[in-house]
Structure formats: structure tokens, C-alpha cells
Amino acid sequence: MFSRLFRALSGDNGATETNPATGAAASEISDAPVTPSAAVPAAGTPAGTTVGRPALASHSFVRREPVVNRQQRVAGYEFSLESRLAARLAGRGGLSQRNLQDTLFQELANAAGEGGVLGQRQAFVPVTPEGLESAYLTRLPRQNTVLMLSLPADAGGDSLPPPALLARLRQEGFSLGMYVPPDKAPLATLRPHLDYVAIDVAAFDGERLRNLAYALKTVDGHTVQIIADNVQTVDEFNLCFQRGFDFFQGPAVSLKEAWAPTKGAASRMRIVQLLNQLRNEAETRELAASLKQDPLLSFRILRYINSPGIGLTSPVTSIEHALVVLGQVRFYRWLSLLLFAPQGGGFGEWLIVELALTRGRLMELLGADRFPVVEHDALFLCGAFSLLDRLLQQPLAELVGQLTLPAAVKEALLTRQGPYGQLLDLAEACESLDAERIEAAAAKAGFESDVTNRALLASMAWAHEVGELGGE
Predict the structure, then answer these.
(1) Are 152 and 159 in contact (CB under 8 A)?
(2) Can you give the pTM of this predicted structure?
(3) What CA–CA distance (Å, rounded) separates 423 from 362?
(4) Which of the four, 140, 150, 226, 334, has the lowest number of CB atoms within 10 Å?
(5) Is residue 49 in a domain?
């Protein structure tokens, strides 16, 4: 179950790992500040295409909001630029509006990996009709990128994108969606070319929501996915779920304060106890005795040690033998990941788990060129463990008191000070919709937007892969 994700974390594949944030080999250590890597052509850029950086917004931090599906799992993210830049350009119209659009395309293209903006998940990118013809759009990876058309309130027939353009974009590999305007008039013309339709929940009452979702779902054999946008409360989430919406987005989904997982606390506390025993160099027989108190954990470690990825020639049938074969260092890393394996909760648990893994990986990537290799695991644990209070529903100070952790990790978790404090502040700020907070945290930590955006998207894709494998 965990063999692939363990190799991803520990680098057991034998290859030299490249830091997605800087492009340097992960083993290269430097005390110098990290500077932005040179922009590299994105996977979607035609050969020979030269596209410069938009003039007005050379340093822009990308924000993201989660989009969850009916299984209450994170299906993707909607991306936007920080609100301060958007507000500054929104009133200018013309060139400035196009510049805002182009800047978002450019930042996502620079930060995207070979598998797309978010790997196997959807990246929802707001776009104006003019933006569909932008030269910068050619740099975006096509795979799993959804261009979400946003029309002005007074949009008439002349301002709609031509159907031929929409057909071409879909043929090139993009998916297309649209935010439903209040009058819904453009839907009839554009709907045959759309894969997604987003409905602002606040703009319609319950009955109209049901009727609209039903009317849009399938017409003439063409089915679209319906997104409930701007979901403010859990009640609205439940209403849209009952009305048959496919995806959900808004404050009720993205605010951590609304997330309250209730399952799996006892099992996770057993893992915390084992981590402590390992840090205190407990004997193998002591570890085996603790494991045997949890049949599910015992089953998981035996399944893991006998998985094809480990490559043993004969099966391991006892806990003691499994611990000897695995070794304490690898066992510690496996338990650290298992701590964040979703255990059947709703979207709250999945979001917290993914957010914790993203924080940990982001700190690890950003700190790779500033800290020795032996500290990289501590960076990951610092970011991941910063959300243990939400996951276990206990005060963080109490949990840290129960854990045996490196001093620098404890200091960062409890005071946001010490060598890891600024990185943890930045990892938290990247989850915020507060533009000034993101920019201030990045400046304090010494990172430019290019490096931060690239590391963030790489961390999100990695966290998704780990979370999916861990939830099996």
C-alpha cells in the first residue's frame, strides 16, 4: 500500500531527486538565499514559441481554493491571483485586465510539472472571453486543465467566444466550463461546448437550484458536471448535495474552522505512541508489543512489508521479523505517513490530511537548499504536524508535549520561532486568501513568487498521490 509513496518520500528509487522549487538536485546544499529559477517552457508550449512575462505583475503569488466531489474528496483546485493585485487591475479594464489574465496563465505554466498543473486532478482556471485567445494560454498544460469562462454581467451575443474557438480548445485537450451568469442567456449557445457549469449558490433559492441543476445536467445527450460555487454553510452544502450537484466549492469547503473530523483519533494516538518509542530508541520487542495492541496496524505493516515494492523473496509472517527487515528509520517514516492516512471521514478529514501533507512537503522543498539533508525529514514533520490539533481534536501544545521531536520542530510548532519558524509561517500563509500575508511571509523567508508557486504546486500534486495511496 505504502511502498510507492514511501519511496517518493525517502528517495529509495536510486535516482537523483530534483527539487521542483529550484530545479537543483535535492542533494545540493547551499546557505545562500533561494532565487527564482529561470522560466522553462511548459508542456503545452509549441516548439519555438517565445512568450515574455506580463509587464504589470512580475511577482504574483497564486492562491487556490479546494473543489470537492460527491465522495467528499478533493477533486481539484480553483486558482486565482492574490486579491490585492486583482483589485488593483480590476478597475482599469482593457490592457490591465488582459495582463491580469496573462499573469495567472504565466504563473501556473511556470509552476506546472510535466503531468499538468496538478497532476491527476483538475486545475480550474478562470478566464475571460478575451483570455481564450491569449498567447499565454498556449503555455498552460492541457491535461486536467479546466478553463472556466467568466462573462461580464452585460454580456451580449457579440461578446461571447465563437463556437469554433471553443471546439478548437477542446480538441487541443483543454476542458471547458463556465460560471453561470444571472440571466443564463448565454448558456443555450455555449452549453454544447462545456464540460462543467458553476452555479453561484447564493444567487438562487433551493427550488431554483434544483431545477437549474436538473435542466443543465443533460441536454440532447450532452452531459455536463455541475459545480456548486460559493457554498457558504454546511446546510447549503447538504442542500446542493441532495440536489445532485457534482462538485462543491466555497467557504464551507475551504475554511479550516468548519472542518471537524471525528474518526480515527484512537488509532492515530497509537501511532503517536509508536513514534515516541522510536525516537527514544525502544527495543524491537517493545515496538512489537505495542503494535500487537492494534490489530489493524499489525495487519498494515505485514501487508506493507510483503508488498511487491519491498521486493522480498520470502514472506514475512511476524511483527518482530517485519520490524527487523524494515529497520527503525524506515519504520518511523512509514508511521509518519500512516498518521496522515484518511480513515473514512468526510471532506473535512480529507482536506486536513491533504493540507498537512502539502505543508510538510512545501517546507521540505523550500528548505532543501538551506538545510542539510539530515534535516529534511524534520522539515516535513514540522509542516505536517502543525495540523495535528485539527486532525486529533486536541490542543497542539498538549500533542507536542506527548511527542518526542527535534528541538527545532517543537520551537516552530509552539512559537513560530527558530530555524523552521519562517518556513512554517510561509506554508500556512500559502493557504490564505490574504494577499498581504502571503507576500509578507514570503519576503520574510526570502522567497520570490516563482519559487514559491512552483514548490506549492509540486507539493499539492505530491500530497494528492500520497493521500490516495494512503487511503487504499
Answers:
(1) yes
(2) 0.72
(3) 9
(4) 150
(5) no
